[in-house]
Amino acid sequence: MDPASDVVPLLGVGILLTALYLQSESFVDPLVWGVALQSALIGMLLGWLAWTEHNLDFAVIAVLAVAIRVFLIPYVLRRQIHAFRWRARELRASNRVTGHVLAAVAVAVIAWFVFQQALASSFPELGGALPFVLLVQGLLMLATRSNTIVQVTGYLEEENAIVYAGALFARGFPLFIEVVIFLDVLGVVLVGVILSIQRDVTGTPEERPIEELTG
Amino acid sequence: MTLTDPLWWIFLLLAAPMAGSILSLIPHPEISRAAARAGALAAVVAATSLLVLRSQGEWGGVLGIDALSDVFIFTVAAIYATSVWYSSAYLRYIHNSFLSPQVYYALMGAFALAMLASLVVADLGLMWIGIEATTVASALLIVLERKPSSVEAAWRYTLIASAGLTIALFALLLLYVSTGTLDAFALAASPPVPTLLVQMAVALALVGYGTKVGLFPMHSWLPDAHSEAPSPVSALFSGVLLPTALYAFLRVYRVLAMPVPSDLTDLLLAFGLLTALVAAFLLQQQRSFKRLFAYSSMEVMGLAVVGVSLGGVALYGVLILLVSHAFAKSAAFYCSGNVLRGTGTTRIDSVHDLRHRMPWTGAAWVLAAPAVTGAPPFGTFVGELLIIVGAVAVGADWVAVLVIVAVLLAFLGVNAQVGGMVFGTTAEPTPPAEEGAESGVSLAYLNVGVALVLGIVSLPYLSSALRAATLVLGGHVP
To answer: How many helices (H) and strands (E) does chain A have?
Structure first.
């Protein structure tokens, strides 16, 4: 067996494990590090593909992934954590995390089998279902968590899934670099601007029932 | 390039809001406002020219327009222009604003530019970027009034809309894998075999773009964003942002050859009916008049998706409904802005006797409310009627019945509430509210007038463009 051919599936397994770890974590700071690690693995995957396939697009996206999603966005998120002076734990999720993990594993297994049954013939690559599973995990994170920073990690996970899918089975997707840059800009707007406004106006990161937004 | 060359007008269409946006950053209130207005007016001129010239064509697989684009472009440009005009009246009353008027106008221009750019591109990837750009540009407009509720609404909007659009992007990846191109015009000209992968791509695009359209159950950002945004921005959200997102979905949907696989039309029908019915029920219990109109928009978008699923003559109804609704709903939101300024509240039970307190705004609101809920003789009525006729024509009588239920519920809910605020009285004396010549209420009359005319007469150029757009979508005109 060629060890080089195992690199992509191995990195895929690592990415999936980080996704499950994120579901199991209720502390905010480790969550930010977790999504940074996942982005780093995506960056390594892209770097590997750029190296083996001499693909300049992948090299550019690898650099972007590392610079923005491994360093910049986690840095801004951690600054927000300190500025808010949070307790470093998502308050309402701590009691539900076991349920989150069970749901995440169940959803991952179901997504895997649905994808393999329905679409495996279109995606001969080993682990072609992984980006789809990662996308579903990001959505689950967004749906089940209430803390704004944790929701951002869910969004970043979705973004990682798109980059992963583009690298794995949608080679030559037009405007791939532009799309990734745009997603990163949105990520920066999310964490940099809106969270700052939220801190200034409400002074709290946790959702509170707001009377005007009911009904 | 000559003046009959569509490329010239497309260039002006995009350059005008961009220039207006940049120039409105000049730190002089009058110049800033004039720049924003000039940019919006130039966009209307370009959009009207594209409509009059019946422009169509594709350029390099990047830009591409047809009759369907022309209709949407005209609507977006018109509502953008009236909203910019109305903004100057609205902004005078905003204190403790998060954004300066200059930045506000610049973001309005960027928001309009993103929508217009989405409508003139042929590449589905670029179209996705345009739709996503609307989120970036408009999110900050929601927090203009610096309230905790508006920050929360902006957060929900950004996160939910972006998450949905990520699914839409995944759908485009699948479509690209199965077809090898994202050129919407080329795909529509030679539709791919509707394999399971292609159908899954279209279904995911429905979920993804449907989030931005406000389809149930992905709609939760919509009432918050519409109710917390300043009224001119709410008008843009309801009137043209939701239809622009639907346009992006329609471009993906059109890659399927007719007849569309029944699994997909059933999925569309389910999403559309559920959205219309849930919104029609929810708007009965609203306490804020801005949320009331937000749910009304959701109901209309649900009906539009029902019409798309039915095809045929219902598609003509969908287009008339969307255009008429854009004008009517923007008028309703301009009135809402005036009432909010005049009474200081958005609570329905705190607003009474507007016929005496704000007679011009009250009268415009009484006209706009039936216009948005499909009452005759407004264009929305014609649109909804054609959707019902379309349902009966394909033998789906039960769909027609459910559409009628949703329409009646929405009509009763909105008009009863607005009627109560305008004609209802209270034992306590209610002082007249300020309603000067610069209240912007004339813009509400203008837009509700357009919605009225659309239902009564065949407008030159616009009506023929609507018919041609129906054919582009694979429908037919009665």
So the answer is: 9, 0
